[in-house]
Each structure stands twice: as C-alpha cells, then as structure tokens.
Amino acid sequence: MTRQVGITGGIGAGKSIVCQIFAALSVPVYAADARAKYIIEHDDVLKKQIVELLGSRAYLANGDYDRAWVAAQVFNNQHLLQNLNELVHPRVFEDTNAWAAKHQHQPYVLKEAAIMNKRAGDGNALHKIILVTAPLALRLDRIGARDPQRSAQQILDIIERQMPDEKRQLLADYVIVNDQRRPLIDQVLALDAVLRNA
Hints:
single chain, 13% strand
C-alpha cells in the first residue's frame, strides 16, 4: 500500500493552502474532515448511532448533519465529544485506507486532519506527519476574514481548546512555517522531493 503522510495544524495555520500546493504537484489529498462529514450524512448505520448518542436534532429535516448544533453540544462536554469521535473515527479510518488503496501507484498520499494525537506508526497507518504552523496574529486574521461572524474572543477560545503547536511538534516529522515570510511553495517543493525519495 502507498505511504500515507499526515498533515495537520491548528485552525488558521493554512493546512488547506499547503494541501492545494501538494495537489498541484499531483499528490492525492484526503480531506479527513470533509470526508467525515460525508460519511456522517451517508452512512445509515453511523447516522443511527449518532442519533442514539445525541438525539434527532443532530440531523436537519433534509438529512444534513447539523454541525453547528452538534458542535455546541460537545464544545464543553469532553466525554460526549469522545463518544462521538469513537463512532466517527473508525469509519473515517476505514474510508481512508480504501481511498489510499486506490492510489497505490503514487509515491505517497496526504491525509489532512485537524486532529492527530499520535506519532506516525503509533497505532495508525501514517508513515510521516507534517505540521503546518503560523504565528497567532496571522491565524486570528485569517479566521476572522473567513468567519467574520466570530469575535476575536470566540476564535481564541477555539484555538485554546486545540492542541498547542508545541505538542503538535512532538508528533511531527516535518514542519512547514506559513508566516508570509518564508516562501510556502519552496517549502512544499523541498518536502515533496524528500517524500518522493524516502
């Protein structure tokens, strides 16, 4: 099976733009959060489990996952969040492996996910992990520009609830710094050359 490389980073760090550059280099990218939402809305067994856990309000009348409502329920309830993750993560893991199997001809594929709690190879299918970082002020600006309805304090609250970069760096094999000073494309090109030849 082709090598899976994880790519992670806090909200506003710039994972998406980094993944777009990798994709432009013909590297397949699995967007775990987007796929998770798709699975949550289309896997009937999982939908039933989520409704049993959270209640029928987890889904709108048209069948769409009510992400905002669910987020509000789990935001301050770590136990409930853990139970939800224990339902969703195994299905995403299976989906990732099936997707990766379709790209066996590639030197490597990227799995983009906001949450990564283990080093590569530590009970997961990842061979390496890339961390995307950015200064806090830049992250606040980026999030504020794309989510203008959020206050600066709300954004800070989200950031504070995420794993800090210091801990993420302990998991990462490579770091890409998205600080608008170091050229992003150059960093991705250099890392792509390393990963293709690893």
